[in-house]
Amino acid sequence: ADEESVGASPAGAEARPAGVDAAEATVTTADTAATATPASPAAPLLSVRDLTRVYARPEATAEGRADVIGIEGVSFDVAEGSTHGVVGESGSGKTTLGKAIAGLIAPDSGTAVVAGYDVARLGKRERREFRRTVQLVHQNPYTAIDPKFTIAAAIEEPLVNFRIGTRAERRARVAEVMEQVALPAELAGRRPRELSGGQLQRVAIARALVIEPRLVVFDEAVSALDVTVQAQILRLLERLQRELDLTYLFISHDLAVVRQISDTVSVVSRGHQVESGPAGEIFERPRDPYTRRLLSAIPRPLGAVSGPSR
How far is CA 248 from its chain centroid? Predict the structure, then answer.
């Protein structure tokens, strides 16, 4: 609160009568405190429990197994306004996990609940509402943006698909979100081929944010960028999270990047979650040999970054 508001009475509150002494005020406060119900912790925006997805092989292997585990028994919670990193090598199940949480594939068992939506049990109407709640940003923006569209049209497309606003309102919203992701207004009429990889990834982020989701899933969203541009995008994501109170699921094979942006982390290997917890604990005191091996492969020095700047 600013200096002028400190100590001010709430709007509409009655002034305390001058004759009430300090002792009475103390008793009243103590009585209120004694009868007050303790505040319960806020429910997580994303809650994952024993999430499992198995892919069937067309033929049995020599060992007789016909199925491939995408993910099995994954569980974690993500508080609203925070970032949960998911890290592991290629083929570890990271992308399967992200797609299941985003509702793009159905889990075989377990639950993923996002803002009250049970992803595996969405009706037609709920699924449409859910699509506005969760958005996905992929590694390659070239595959997510129609090359025939202008940049403004590409960002506007989700608004059109969800029938949000008039044409004038949609254009105003596009201009607003372009400013939020630091895309110059003069790029609005350009085509994707005229933009750099970093600029296109900002367009992909703008497309995700234009319908005001609560959870954004980033699947290797900065891995194709050079180190300088990667750092710029990470700073952008941190700023957007602070300004818009966004929640992120950040999937990457790069532990240094996950360490920079994440509050909590899950480490996955061959579809299984080997450990999960606060980022500081995972990176400073890893319990699993797989995590220790991944950490040992990070080039030194890591730099001064030890977690997201809040």
Answer: 1
CA distance 75 to 166: 41
CATH code of the domain containing 67: 3.40.50.300
For 278, the domain range is 46-296
Concatenate the DSSP letters of all residues of 12-62 into one string: TPPPPPTT--HHHHHHHHHHHHHHPPPPPPPPPSEEEEEEEEEEEPSS--T
pLDDT digits 0-9 by tens, 199-236: 999 999 999 999 999 999 999 999 989 999 999 999 99
Whole-number Å distance between alpha carbons of 84 and 247:
8
**Token reading at 263:** 């509050």
Count how many domains the chain has: 1
Digit-coded pLDDT (tens) for 34-91: 444 444 457 899 999 999 999 987 665 555 556 788 999 999 999 999 999 999 998 8
Instruction: Give dist(CA 234, CA 97) in Å, integer.
Output: 22
Residues 247 and 270 sit within 8 Å (Cβ to Cβ):
no
